[in-house]
Amino acid sequence: MQKSARSKAEEQFTATQKETRQILTDIERQHHDRAANMAKQKAMRLAKQAAEREAAAAEAAAKAKLIKKAARAKSAKKAAKAS
User: Fold this and answer.
1) Is residue 2 part of a domain?
2) SS3 of the chain: helix, strand, coil, percent, to 5
3) CB-based contacts of 40: which residues, under 8 Å, 6+ apart?
4) How much is the pLDDT for 44?
5) Predicted TM-score (pTM) above 0.70
6) Domain total for the chain?
7) Is 1 within the bounds of a domain?
8) Distance (Å, rounded) from C-alpha 42 to C-alpha 30?
């Protein structure tokens, strides 16, 4: 038995809807993957920046300690020379 034009059209419409849903879910998945990747990259960038700040602070503290030590040595040398 042949299908009526209406049932053929309904089948075509249903197939098109299914295809459209599949495309939309693919697009949504790609969007989610891209957002997850960007979040991961942001977290890595922030972690790197924090590590760089800590390293810079440690370097500055070490430099200040060295300067302080040199200043103490200089003042001790002056005091010894004055005595």
Assistant:
1) no
2) 95, 0, 5
3) none
4) 98
5) no
6) 1
7) no
8) 18
